[in-house]
Automatic annotation (TrEMBL):
A Pfam family: YdjM
Keyword Magnesium: no
Phylogenetic lineage: Bacteria, Pseudomonadati, Bacteroidota, Cytophagia, Cytophagales
The protein's name in its UniProt record: LexA-binding, inner membrane-associated hydrolase
InterPro entries in the record: YdjM-like (IPR007404)
Range of residues in the leader sequence: none
Key word Transmembrane present: yes
Keyword list, A-Z: Membrane, Transmembrane, Transmembrane helix
Transmembrane segments: 21-41, 61-86, 93-112, 132-152, 164-183, 189-210
């Protein structure tokens, strides 16, 4: 899932108005941000297998330290704890931790049965929505649109940058999603995969920071 994670982050701004959109974006994507670095270190493994599912060519062979349910809980506690150390805001810290954990549950909807429950067990689960391109687009779009709408209704631009920043962020997501769905498969190279992922995250997080800095909660 791509748009769905960010849609949840947008929507979470309503219940966590003190948490920046940048922080929420990092939280919902924390394990995906960590994942390519573990690939580079050969701790986790993925194969590029065009046609593996209708949506993604990634065959996730081994990624228990980023994408198992148990480690999702651990990473949620770690990130929520770090946020509390800096902000001393227990409510916001809980939301940040839950945002990190939410990644596993949204992935559970779209992944084929390749999501581990524990780092060392053999049980893997996944509903497999990625086997249907139309259903994937419908579900992801619904979550994203709902989240953006909640964010839009609960914040307001304090200047033109806040207005056009949000439009630019949404536009980038739409373009990235179209490319993800219909573009060519990525290079079968971990360094190339890491490079493209870093660029994508840098753009998304930069736009999130710029947008949220120029909007205020209502």
């Amino acid at each position: 899932m791509f748009l769905g994670h960010y849609g949840l982050a947008f929507g979470a701004k309503k219940i966590a108005p003190k948490v920046s959109l940048l922080t929420l974006f990092v939280a919902v994507e924390f394990v995906d941000i960590l994942w390519p670095f573990l690939l580079l270190l050969d701790v986790e493994k993925v194969k590029i297998h065009p046609g593996f599912t209708a949506v993604t060519p990634f065959e996730f062979v081994h990624y228990p330290f980023t994408h198992s349910l148990v480690m999702g809980v651990v990473w949620g506690l770690v990130c929520g704890g770090i946020y509390w150390l800096f902000q001393k805001d227990i409510r916001s810290s809980i939301i940040v931790g839950l945002a990190v954990l939410s990644h596993w549950f949204l992935d559970f909807i779209v992944h084929v049965p390749d999501l581990p429950l524990t780092p060392f067990g053999g049980i893997k689960v996944g509903i497999g929505l990625w086997n249907s391109l139309p259903l994937t687009m419908l579900v992801e779009s619904a979550i994203f649109i709902a989240g953006v709408w909640i964010y839009f209704k609960n914040t307001r631009a304090i200047n033109g940058k806040g207005k056009w920043g949000l439009f630019s962020l949404i536009g980038f997501f739409v373009i990235a999603e179209i490319f993800n769905m219909f573009g060519p498969p990525p290079e079968d190279s971990i360094p190339a995969l890491l490079g493209s992922f870093v660029v994508l995250q840098a753009i998304v997080l930069g736009l999130a920071y710029f947008t949220d800095q120029n909007r205020e909660t209502i």
